Inverse folding.
């Protein structure tokens, strides 16, 4: 009931805007008010018929992006579960005395959560474009309202700005993925410093000092190699999600610009 009332109010507001625009065009183009009022009435009648129609059904491809996102991450967590079953995960965290592997893992989870949020948002906006309702408030309608009365050159500028805004949405996910690799490289440097810090040239001839030096060397090399391994693997995982989001964003941007061109008028 509330939805129908809202659409009725939107129809009334749209009718008022159409009549006002018609009067303005009549004064500019010297067209009789009766002719412009008739055109406005026809537009309102068309909107009323659109309201009475059932909303468009969302096709079976509407949630394809989310399904692909789920498949990628189900596969990733399955492989992680296999590694955990083999005891490899515990080995990595136990050997990394610097704690960087844990920090890398937490950063990855934050990036994955953000990627999931972006995937849901892109899917929702793609559905809004495919089943566009001019009377329903949405980001799609905001863009169409902003370009509807612009010239073709002005719409081209708006389209370029839209592409930049869409790409900027995914910047954080890309930066987090790059940060995973950088943290792994930092762990490599820390590990080598730790490994070489326990080596002393003066104690190399002492048999009792060799065992502690070897232990420190092995511990440092473990930190260097495991942090690099964790950072690289999680970077690949998150970048797979990022590429998926890029694909969805490109589809959304192209569909939105195409819709704007069809609804716009010079």
């Amino acid at each position: 009931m509330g939805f129908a009332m809202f659409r009725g109010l939107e129809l009334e507001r749209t009718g008022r805007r159409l009549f006002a625009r018609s009067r303005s065009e009549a004064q500019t183009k010297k067209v009789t008010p009766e002719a412009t009022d008739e055109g406005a009435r026809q537009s309102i009648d068309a909107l009323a018929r659109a309201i009475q129609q059932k909303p468009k059904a969302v096709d079976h491809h509407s949630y394809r992006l989310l399904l692909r996102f789920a498949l990628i991450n189900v596969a990733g967590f399955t492989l992680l579960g296999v590694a955990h079953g083999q005891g490899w995960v515990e080995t990595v965290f136990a050997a990394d005395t610097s704690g960087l592997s844990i920090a890398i893992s937490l950063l990855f989870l934050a990036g994955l959560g953000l990627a999931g949020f972006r995937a849901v948002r892109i899917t929702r906006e793609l559905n809004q474009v495919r089943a566009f309702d001019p009377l329903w408030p949405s980001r799609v309608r905001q863009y169409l309202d902003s370009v509807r009365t612009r010239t073709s050159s002005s719409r081209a500028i708006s389209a370029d700005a839209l592409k930049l805004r869409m790409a900027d949405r995914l910047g954080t996910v890309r930066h987090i993925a790059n940060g995973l690799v950088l943290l792994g490289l930092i762990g490599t440097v820390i590990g080598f410093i730790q490994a070489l810090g326990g080596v002393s040239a003066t104690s190399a001839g002492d048999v009792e000092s060799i065992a502690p030096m070897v232990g420190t060397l092995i511990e440092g090399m473990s930190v260097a190699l495991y942090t690099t391994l964790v950072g690289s693997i999680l970077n690949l995982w998150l970048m797979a999600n990022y590429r998926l989001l890029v694909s969805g964003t490109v589809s959304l941007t192209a569909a939105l610009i195409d819709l704007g061109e069809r609804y716009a008028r010079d």
Summary: The CA atoms of residues 179 and 235 lie 8 Å apart. The chain has nine helices and no strands. Residues 1-9, 53-58 have pLDDT under 50 and may be disordered.
